[in-house]
């Protein structure tokens, strides 16, 4: 009761009782009103801290450094957390997401003057791309070709939540196309740059600058890692920077590690497994203690006290000495408990339990296939809605700008790119290939789409098929891979008439 209730109860106990009784009834009635239980107040919700509703960028900026630091620590010391980003990068990028350049149209003075450009220009573009992308000179640090940059970028996104790619303009003797790509971690964003209003009507939000139309215009980037000391930040225009992260909320400007929702669970599980391991080590120390009753305690030599135990150790005690060992607790259901925790952690990463742990002991064909299909949808989201539009397409735009000068490609061409992601491994190749073949024959899809689904460039496969068929024909060999072979076998064999001339059986 509050002070007023107590005062009324002291002066008029009957009125005070009725007041408290009516208040209880009102509270009961309030409890019957329909509402979101998750937003209710009371003892069950007292520990719920998320009462305020900050913006997504306030929330991320507050905890970003801690989240990234802990996620990286787990990736160093926890074998499961180290494997998870590798598994994600293997499935999203693999050995590389391959482009197929396409000339869409020619635009001159703002008008479309042509469409359906000849294949010669596209072949020239493809050759130029291979020259740039498959060479280490495309990397400012000289460590990877473009497909290696894709892989390390996706792995960094999974571990740290985001990746930055800066276009570094270089001389043509360093790179024929006049630019290289430098990858940076998100730590290089100068979050101290923050203002509600900049000159020109824009604003800066934790290192990300926006113009008056609320569009990103650039980033403040350190010239070295800020923890190395003496780092200075400078402004990088939006056309020279790529920033890739998984957008979980609208308006989000920074990415968070994939492990963010599982950090505490992984840490606690680590401690639990360490405690279990130490318990097993203690159990393995089964020393033997011998007490000699026939030894004169006055003449016994002084021996060191026993302060440590080792497996198989034999110790001799003095008269009157004894040893008491505490029983080591035995954890029942250790495997089932850790499996449950690993399932939850795998969900946090967006992986299946089998991908995360490598444990296939409880998987049959049906469950494995269903898990693989569901995981494939997540991988396609990462590929086609996050990584390809933000990393691959923007890097290809930089390449086209350089190729139009270096390779002499018409500057008026509008060039797009189709990307082929790595193929999905088949669970039952015989059935799945038969299904793909039937889909093509039925007209439900095209041969080109099936080739792309298997992770190859249709033009490269077609060129290889032409070369192979010609090679076999010149050698006088008939192979089943040539569809013409099946057609030829179904044709009736020609026979010779009395004059020795070849004719069909019907004309005999």
How would you concisely characterize the structure shown here?
The chain is α+β, with helices and mostly antiparallel strands and 508 residues long. It is 44% helix and 14% strand. A four-stranded antiparallel sheet has the order 5-6-7-8, with no helix packed on it. Strands 2-1-12 form a three-stranded antiparallel sheet. It has a three-stranded antiparallel sheet with strand order 4-3-9.
3D architecture notes:
- The structure is a single chain.
- With 508 residues, the protein is an alpha+beta fold.
- The chain has 14 helices and 14 strands.
- The protein has helices at residues 3-11, 13-32, 56-77, 79-92, 119-133, 146-160, 263-284, 334-349, 353-357, 365-406, 429-442, 447-453, 458-474, 483-490; strands spanning 98-108, 111-115, 162-169, 179-184, 203-205, 208-210, 216-222, 233-237, 241-245, 288-291, 314-317, 413-420, 495-496, 502-503.
- β13 (495-496) and β14 (502-503) form a beta hairpin.
- α3 (56-77) packs across α4.
- The longest helix is centred in the last third of the chain and has 42 residues, at 365-406.
- It is extended, with a radius of gyration of 35 Å.
């Amino acid at each position: 009761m509050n002070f007023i209730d107590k005062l009324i109860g002291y002066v008029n106990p009957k009125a005070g009782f009725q007041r408290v009784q009516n208040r209880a009834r009102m509270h009961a009635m309030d409890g019957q009103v329909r509402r979101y239980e998750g937003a209710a107040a009371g003892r069950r919700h007292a520990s719920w801290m998320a009462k305020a509703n900050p913006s997504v960028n306030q929330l991320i900026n507050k905890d970003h450094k801690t989240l990234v630091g802990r996620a990286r620590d787990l990736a160093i010391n926890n074998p499961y957390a180290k494997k998870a980003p590798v598994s994600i990068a293997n499935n999203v990028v693999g050995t590389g997401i391959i482009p197929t350049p396409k000339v869409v149209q020619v635009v001159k003075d703002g008008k479309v003057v042509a469409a359906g450009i000849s294949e010669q220009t596209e072949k020239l573009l493809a050759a130029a791309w291979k020259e740039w992308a498959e060479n280490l000179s495309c990397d400012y640090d000289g460590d990877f070709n473009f497909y290696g940059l894709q892989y390390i970028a996706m792995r960094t996104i999974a571990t740290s939540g985001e990746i930055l790619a800066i276009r570094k303009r270089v001389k043509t003797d360093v790179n024929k196309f006049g630019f290289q790509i430098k990858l940076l971690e998100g730590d290089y964003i100068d979050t101290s740059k923050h203002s509600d209003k900049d000159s020109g009507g824009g604003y800066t939000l934790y290192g990300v600058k926006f113009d008056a139309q609320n569009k990103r215009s650039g980033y403040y980037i350190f010239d070295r890692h800020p923890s190395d000391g003496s780092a200075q930040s400078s402004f990088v225009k939006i056309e020279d920077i790529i920033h890739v992260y998984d957008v979980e909320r609208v308006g989000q400007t920074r990415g968070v590690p994939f492990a963010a929702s599982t950090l505490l669970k992984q840490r606690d599980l680590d401690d639990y497994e360490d405690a279990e391991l130490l318990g097993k080590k203690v159990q393995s120390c089964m020393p033997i203690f011998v007490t000699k009753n026939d030894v004169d305690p006055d003449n016994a030599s002084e021996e060191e006290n026993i302060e440590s135990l080792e497996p198989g150790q034999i110790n001799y005690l003095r008269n009157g000495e004894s040893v008491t060992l505490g029983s080591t607790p035995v954890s029942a259901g250790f495997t089932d408990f850790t499996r449950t925790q690993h399932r939850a952690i795998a969900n946090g990463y967006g992986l299946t339990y089998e991908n995360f742990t490598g444990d296939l002991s409880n998987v049959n064909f049906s469950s494995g296939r269903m898990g693989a299909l569901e995981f494939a949808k997540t991988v396609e989201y990462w590929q086609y809605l996050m990584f390809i539009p933000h990393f691959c397409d923007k890097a290809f735009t930089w390449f086209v700008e350089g190729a139009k000068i270096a390779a002499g490609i018409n500057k008026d061409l509008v060039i797009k790119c189709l990307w082929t992601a790595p193929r999905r491994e088949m669970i039952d190749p015989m059935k799945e290939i038969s299904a793909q073949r039937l889909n093509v024959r039925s007209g439900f899809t095209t041969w080109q789409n099936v080739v792309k689904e298997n992770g190859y460039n249709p033009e490269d496969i077609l060129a290889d098929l032409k070369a192979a068929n010609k090679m076999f024909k010149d050698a006088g060999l008939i192979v089943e891979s040539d569809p013409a072979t099946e057609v030829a076998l179904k044709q009736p064999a020609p026979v010779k008439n009395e004059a020795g001339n070849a004719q069909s059986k019907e004309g005999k």
